[in-house]
Amino acid sequence: MSKTASYDTAPWARHYTATMAAGLPALNHASVAGMLTEAASQYRHQTAFTTCMPNGMYGSLSFAQTEDMSNAFAVYLRESLSVKPGTRVAVQMPNCLSYPVAAFAVLKAGCILVNVNPLYTPAEMEHQFNDSGAEVLVIMDMFADKLDAIMDRTPIKHVVMTSVSQWFPPVVRRVLNLVLKYWNKAIPVHHVSCTPMDQALETGRRLRDNRGIRVRDYWEPLTRDTIALLQYTGGTTGVSKGAALTHGNLLANIQQIDTMAGAHMADGQECVLTALPLYHIFAFTVNLLAFYQHGAHNVMVPSPRPIQNCQRAIENFPISWISGVNTLYNALLNEEWFNLYPPGTLKAALAGGTALHRAVAKRWQQTAGCPIAEGYGLTETSPTLCFNPLDNARPDSIGIPVPGTQIRIVDEQGDCVAPGERGEIIARGPQVMAGYWQRPEETAKSLKEGWFYTGDVAYMDPEGYFHIVDRKKDMVLVSGFNVYPNEVEDCIALLDQVQESAVIGVPDDKTGEAVRAYVVLREEGLSGMDIRQHCKRYLAAYKVPQSVEFRPDLPKTPVGKVLRKELRAQLTQEKPVAMSPGSNKDRANKDNKEKVA
Amino acid sequence: MLTPIEEALLAIMMVVIMLGMGSSLTFKDFRIALRHPQAVLVGFASQYLFMPLIAFSLALAFNLTGPQTIGLVLMGCMPGGTTSNIFAYFSKSLLSLSIMMTVCSTIGAVFLVPILMEVYTAGVEGHLRIPPAEIIGLLFVLLIPTFFGMWLRKRNPNKGALSELTGSLVGVVVIIFLVVTWIPRNYQLLLDTAPGVFASVILLGLIGFAFGYGFARLLRLDPRKARTVSLETGIQNGPLGALIVIMVFSGSTQQEVLVMPVLYSLFIVMTSTVATLYYRRWTRLEELARDQAKVEPAG
């Protein structure tokens, strides 16, 4: 059997259940808007979204309300602001009731949604608004002060302002606003002229009634090839660029997630905890879209850190599904209120973003008593490429390709490597993006003959399950030998005194590159020598860090991934990069192509 | 002391506060507290074994007069007050545990306070007895609003959250009110009192905190539970002590004994506030550390 055939014969298919093996069913809808409208009519009276604050205050919207409000906002966009189909509309907010209303409205209006991380610095916002050419911005009041400095230099013409307490019951809303303003001091003063969300909806409803507008007419012309979403991602070059995801990409990925997990979902009865930000592709596709289609109740936590912020949401609502990253599950398992009395309603947990640690997965299964399945994907792939089947999840594995997806492991020349050998993971399928927004050269570098080059190094085991080794560009080349930072970090993590570490390559006269470790200690009493000695016991000599530097913390993305890129940039600090410096938190999605779901 | 109207107002505020505290709880919290029943026992022991002993030693050490000794030992014997629950809430300790300890020690007081007083202050005239009606009243103020708050939260988390917020605001108001109004209304008493008396009432609370914490840690309770025991041990029911003194003694003896519960009540609000702020920061740091911590290896 040729090497190519060993992947293209889909050896993983034997793990497919009957539903998965039947392949990807034909898509029912031409656009995401069609799916949303159908789901809303099916589950009209059920609760669709709830925002739960750390103190337990909450506000909810039913499917019917979500439908009505997003329709009204779509009319406001098209009629009052007179935006054309295909216009970019930026939405910048943490998880709150306004997010689904705004995002759905943009899709229904036939516009292109641009997800913006609310923690971005003004400079990062400016870049993204200009790159996407966004004309309308829906933003939360907590972050509006950042607009003051940059508004004049962006194409944004209209700003709609909302707040985290939007659509909470009136008394609760007022109290919450007082608390946020005077106790948390979270609502800064801004000088941007804007329309409040309530007023925008009011205008939208009035115009709809007066002019007899059918929102259906906006979205019926959309096709699966119409761009729905610009999801920004750092990419290998470091400049943030928008992955253009079509309605077809998103619908296909929803369908793929469905074939993997749908059998475990009871229509209209699930309750999913959304602690990950919806502006991130993982929560966007999985929590917001896939669960909406099934009539699930989505409980959103605006800020999941520290993890106590999720306590009231978990205690007050019958959570049956959780999606999260390794750090979230780890934090939950460290809480007495969770690990002693995990919610009895839990059915399954989905993990992505970064590698799920074996210890976390094992303890989760013991404690929560439900399966935890890890998946893999990227912003550019809507995001899901691989997932563990829920009843056959394997530790340390990203699972098997979701139905309708082809995966290969290739070498530098793009030729398949033998099964079990390491190489770059490439993927083809209906969920792979159309390209980067207005960046044909970048697109050509990542998309070749329909295959998307992920930049991740992985291998396939004899069972057909895939395992991620590391990011290709993070690989360190020591005297011609490949060193994968993950392997060294895992080794250092074995030391109890170590909280976490990051390994990068630094230029070296003798060996080309040398391994350097940045280590955060939980407790004092470990020297660099101790760490090197420990590594020598487990690793080949060339993999042992040549230098060890202790740090109080490491730069990270909002989902908790360590930014090795940032550490490399610090090494060459004399030559600062184009973007103005922000706090680590603010660097957010500037990371490489996000590894998600 | 407070006027009857102020007292009535304070009682109403107490109900509001406990309703708010209750709204922060679920039955799961009580199950967590009960997972270590020794916590309640530790609290009980520090409350009734060690606090009277500490009070008695302090009275000896500072050469207090007979009536002052009675007053101080009586304070040492008192059960935990409702204020301890407020401070437990603000310090982010285990409120459910604090409430259970208050309930247990209050019920225990009916039997134990007369016995202990007999042991430590043998030969004092007057029959020292805790009026059961007081105890029932106390439990009423404590438990009914708590359960009602829990029910409220279960039924409608928004109403629960509003009641919790109201309760904690009223709690802050009451604490500030007690501290601010106490000094002007009692400054003559403060001027007339000997330093040894000040020292003994302040130390009773402080040693109570330290002892409760150390004892709980010794019996392997986690730091958060130990902080709860600490507050519960140090904070005694001052008003109940004052009430008993008024009922049992009369004339100048009453005045002399009464100084102790009254002074204790003043200073415990101040020391508890400091301890609470400190514990709160401590809890916060622990929360952040847990958030970052590595997962324990699966067994």
Write the layout of secondary structure elements.
The complex is a heterodimer of chains A (597) and B (299).
Chain A: H1 3-8, H2 18-21, H3 32-42, E1 47-52, E2 58-62, H4 63-80, E3 88-92, H5 98-108, E4 112-115, H6 122-132, E5 136-140, E6 158-162, H7 170-183, E7 195-196, H8 197-211, H9 216-219, E8 227-233, E9 241-246, H10 247-261, E10 271-274, H11 281-293, E11 297-300, H12 311-316, E12 321-325, H13 326-333, H14 336-339, E13 348-352, H15 358-368, E14 372-378, E15 384-387, E16 400-401, E17 406-410, E18 423-428, E19 435-436, H16 440-446, E20 447-448, E21 451-460, E22 466-471, E23 476-478, E24 481-483, H17 485-493, E25 498-508, E26 512-521, H18 528-538, E27 547-550, H19 564-571, H20 584-587, E28 595-596
Parallel strand pairs in A: 1-11, 3-4, 3-5, 4-8, 5-6, 6-7, 10-11, 10-12, 12-13, 13-14, 26-27
Antiparallel strand pairs in A: 1-2, 8-9, 9-19, 14-15, 14-28, 15-16, 17-18, 18-21, 20-21, 21-22, 23-24, 25-26
Helix pairs in contact in A: 3-4, 4-5, 4-8, 10-11, 13-15
Chain B: H1 4-23, H2 27-34, H3 37-61, H4 66-77, H5 82-90, H6 95-120, H7 132-155, H8 157-192, H9 195-218, H10 223-234, H11 238-248, H12 251-292
Q: Descriptors for this entry?
A:
A: about 600 residues, alpha/beta, Rossmann fold, GMP Synthetase, Chain A, domain 3, 2 domains, ten-stranded mixed β-sheet, globular, disordered C terminus, B: about 300 residues, mainly alpha, Na+/H+ antiporter like fold
Task: Explain how this protein is built.
The complex is a heterodimer of chains A (597) and B (299). Chain A is α/β, with parallel strands linked by helices. Chain A folds into two domains: 5-460, ANL, N-terminal domain (Rossmann fold, 3-Layer(aba) Sandwich); 478-587, GMP Synthetase, Chain A, domain 3, CATH 3.30.300.30. In chain A, helix 4 packs across helix 5. Chain A is globular. Residues 574-597 of chain A have low confidence and may be disordered. Chain B has 299 residues and is mostly helical. Chain B has one domain: Na+/H+ antiporter like fold (Up-down Bundle). Helix content of chain B is 83%, strand content 0%. Chain B contains twelve helices and no strands. Chain B has helices at residues 4-23, 27-34, 37-61, 66-77, 82-90, 95-120, 132-155, 157-192, 195-218, 223-234, 238-248, 251-292. The A-B interface holds A 52-53, 55-58, 168-169, 171-172, 175, 179, 305-308, 312, 315-316, 330-331, 333-337, 340-341, 357, 359-360, 362-363, 366, 493, 499-500, 522 and B 26, 28-29, 31-32, 35, 153, 157-158, 160-162, 164-165, 287-288, 290-299.
